[in-house]
Amino acid sequence: MIEYNIDGGRTLIAVGEWEDMYERVGFKAVVDEAEDKLKEVIARYSLKSRHSCGLKSCRTPHNRGYLVVFNSGSETCIGNRCVKNILALILRKVKMLLQKRLILKSTESILLKSNVR
Ligand SMILES: [Zn+2]
């Protein structure tokens, strides 16, 4: 069973085989996540047989995961754990960026107060 995201014009459909993903335009069996960044998660699947994860650094057989799109437009299927790892990495970067912005804002505020006196 695959559940597709209905955002962006995609429709909700049910598919029962790996080939349903493999035959999609833009699908690649392997994507180098160091060269191409994750753009969107477009579907979730849970299938009976195990196939290799599409991340170049992983290739672990899995039967539950997500169909994802990268910035280049390439699609691949990646295991449940890999999606969690990628999303955790993105969240960590967002938190670091937010922290830097807060420090910058705080510094600006201190400088403005010191100039007013
Ligand atoms: Zn993986």
Low-confidence stretches: none
Order of helices and strands: EHEEEH
Strand order of the largest sheet: 1-2-3-4
Domains counted in the coordinates: how many? Answer: 1
Distance between the termini: 66 Å
Mind telling me the C-alpha Rg? 20 Å
Give the % helix.
25-40%
How does the helix and strand content classify structurally? alpha+beta
For the biggest sheet, the summary is: 4 strands, antiparallel
Kindly report the average pLDDT value. 85
Residue fraction in strands: 25-35%
Number of E-type strands: 4
Overall outline: elongated
Q: What compounds are bound to the protein?
A: zinc ion
Please tally the helical runs, counting DSSP H or I stretches of 4 or more residues. Answer: 2
Any overview of this molecule?
This protein is of the alpha+beta class and 117 residues long. The protein has one domain. The protein is built from two helices and four strands, in the order βαβββα. It has helices at 19-22, 80-116, and strands spanning 2-4, 38-52, 61-70, 75-79. A four-stranded antiparallel beta sheet has the order 1-2-3-4, covered by helices on one side. The relative contact order is 0.15. The chain binds zinc ion (ZN). The site of zinc ion has 7 residues, from strand 4.
Outline the secondary-structure elements.
Elements: E1 2-4, H1 19-22, E2 38-52, E3 61-70, E4 75-79, H2 80-116
Antiparallel strand pairs: 1-2, 2-3, 3-4
